[in-house]
Amino acid sequence: MRKGEKLRQSIFWSLDFIKGGKIKKHYDDIKNMIEFPENSMSSKKRSRYLKKIMTHAANSVPLYNNINPSNIQNFPVINKEIIKESYNKFQSYKYKNKKKISVSTSGSTGASFTVFQDLNKKARNTADIVYFSELAGYKLGYKLYYLRFWSMFQGNNKVLNWMQNVIPIDVFNLSPHSIKNLIDQIKNTSGNKSMIGYASIFHKICNYLESVESDSVDCNLKSVIGISERLDPSTKKSVKKYFNVDMVSRYSNAENGMIAQQPKCKEYFDINWASYYVEILSLHNNKQAKPGELGRVVITDLFNYYMPIIRYDTGDVGIMSDLIHNNKTRKVLEKIEGRKMDMIRNTSGEILSTSILLLINNYKEITQRQIIQKTKTEYLFKLIVKNKPFKKEDEFINEFKNYLGQNASITLKFVDNIPLLPSGKQQSIINEVKP
């Protein structure tokens, strides 16, 4: 590591030490549990964490007061809508006067959603990210190019970005010209570098490099992590070709955190058993799916004591299977299909990140939405609004034309409900244009 990188790493751990070393303790705990899963101590610790959060919930969370915490199957399966309908009932009265943070997500159902977390949960999540990022090749102090829809996120703290060496890149400004500038910047900047961002953006970057018949990019890139969207194996191959890095996909969500991540050169996902209890339930009922069977991803967060999230249906679907390695068996997520939604294209035919959905969060009167691309230039927005009429139609249409194209024909349809898929998910984007 270079001097500046070591300095930032030292600052990070020094600040944590001053605050009691919580992140380092969690980091060491996660590392031991993930790297030695067959160890009896790791197994006992996982069981203890699960038992502890269930007992805490039964004793201090109104919704769970009458539940016997001896077995997780005694707890009901919940989802975003159930939490939102009984929001106060999910909060522990033992933690209501303690410090908390709030995390928000739009999610695939199209409804904004906020969860409270206690500070110990925040430290655990930070340690999760540090550890799993290291598995991908990143180290604290490396310059991190973070590609996402930054204009939709508050708190883009320049001082914090400097300390963490984060370079924010807004993906909706990623024209061929800006991609070239980004590549030049990465090539001409010294030190170790990593990239994280929406999977579709790396596909777009590699397509640009292919279009200009680029050679491999010599830029000392150490890791690339795809988030929020399904990562196609062909994109991983292209990233390897142009950047000589084994890209991985991360499965996480805002309301809980780092759930699973692909090992390098693999398509399955290693589950973060240190911080979550993960189940795959049938698409049709709440029974356990069979190994190798597609089902709903249901997680229990082992560390959020302010607002215990137990048996939470993420809205994603996946397959859990047994992986045998060196005569040892562990459960992994063979597939995550929840983020496999139709990709919307602008009127020029370019694929847009599904994060375009976040634009709608600016309109607080809209509670759910669905975008349907009818033709190459025609788009139908199904919207559920709190109060009719919706007074910002012109503003809404003009804003989306900036991304879909000025020649886009946008129709708004106000509905009372948006039908769910058989899996129980709501498809936020539908593309009816045949390829």
From TrEMBL:
<dbReference type="InterPro" id="IPR042099">
    <property type="entry name" value="ANL_N_sf"/>
</dbReference>
<dbReference type="InterPro" id="IPR053158">
    <property type="entry name" value="CapK_Type1_Caps_Biosynth"/>
</dbReference>
<protein>
    <submittedName>
        <fullName>CoF synthetase</fullName>
    </submittedName>
</protein>
